[in-house]
Design brief:
Elements: H1 4-11, H2 15-36, H3 40-56, H4 67-103, H5 107-120, H6 123-133, H7 139-146, H8 150-167, H9 174-182
Helix pairs in contact: 1-2, 2-3, 2-4, 3-4, 5-9, 6-8, 7-8
C-alpha cells in the first residue's frame, strides 16, 4: 500500500519515493499488463513506460491520487493501444502479402520449392526458424519456450539460413516463406 505521504514525496520529485513506489508495485503491474498482453517482455516494457509517464506527470497529480489506480489506467490504455497497433500491422502485412502473391506469376512453384526446402531442415531447426521469422519471437523468448540456451537458438537459425541460401539457387522472395508459414 502506498501512503499519501509517499505520494506527496513523489509529486515533489523525490526519486527515493519513486523508487519505493516502483519496487512496491512493479510485479503487480506486470501481472496486470499480462492480463492484456500475452508477452512477458512487452508487458514489462509497458509497465516501465507507464512508470516513466507517472514520473513525468507527477506534478499534475493530487496527493489523494491512488498511484495503483493511476498506473492501472496507464497500463490498460497502453496495452490496448499496443493490441490495436498489432492488428493494424497484421492487416497491413496480410494485404502486402496478398498483393505480392497476385503479382507473382510462378508463385505455386516457388511455394512448393520452399516447402521442400523447409521439410529438409531438422524438425527442431525448422520450428526455431518459424518462431523467429514468422512469429517474430526474440532469441531469448525462443530459448525460454524450448528450454534451450540462447546460443543454441542462434546456432540453429544461423545453420537454417545457411542451408536455405545454399539450397536456394534461385532468388526466392521473402514473402513466399511468409505465405508458406501462414498455410
Amino acid at each position: 500500500m502506498i501512503s499519501d505521504y509517499m505520494t506527496k514525496r513523489l509529486i515533489k520529485g523525490d526519486s527515493n519515493a519513486f523508487k519505493a513506489v516502483f519496487d512496491t508495485l512493479y510485479k503487480d503491474m506486470v501481472a496486470y499488463a499480462g492480463y492484456f498482453i500475452d508477452n512477458q517482455h512487452m508487458a514489462e516494457d509497458i509497465v516501465q513506460e507507464s512508470f516513466i509517464k507517472l514520473w513525468d506527470k507527477r506534478k499534475t497529480l493530487s496527493p489523494a491520487t491512488s498511484l495503483k489506480s493511476y498506473l492501472h489506467a496507464l497500463i490498460k490504455n497502453s496495452a490496448l493501444n499496443h493490441i490495436e497497433h498489432l492488428k493494424v500491422v497484421d492487416k497491413y502485412q496480410k494485404s502486402l502479402l496478398q498483393y505480392e502473391l497476385e503479382e507473382n506469376d510462378n508463385i505455386e512453384e516457388q511455394i512448393e520449392f520452399v516447402k521442400d526446402l523447409m521439410d529438409k531442415l531438422p524438425e527442431k531447426r525448422k520450428h526455431i526458424l518459424v518462431l523467429n521469422v514468422i512469429e517474430s519471437k526474440k532469441y531469448t523468448e525462443i530459448a525460454e519456450e524450448m528450454d534451450i540456451s540462447v546460443n543454441t537458438v542462434k546456432d540453429h537459425i544461423k545453420k537454417a539460413y545457411a542451408f536455405l541460401r545454399q539450397e536456394a539457387k534461385q532468388n526466392i522472395p521473402p514473402f513466399i516463406i511468409l505465405y508458406f508459414a501462414c498455410k
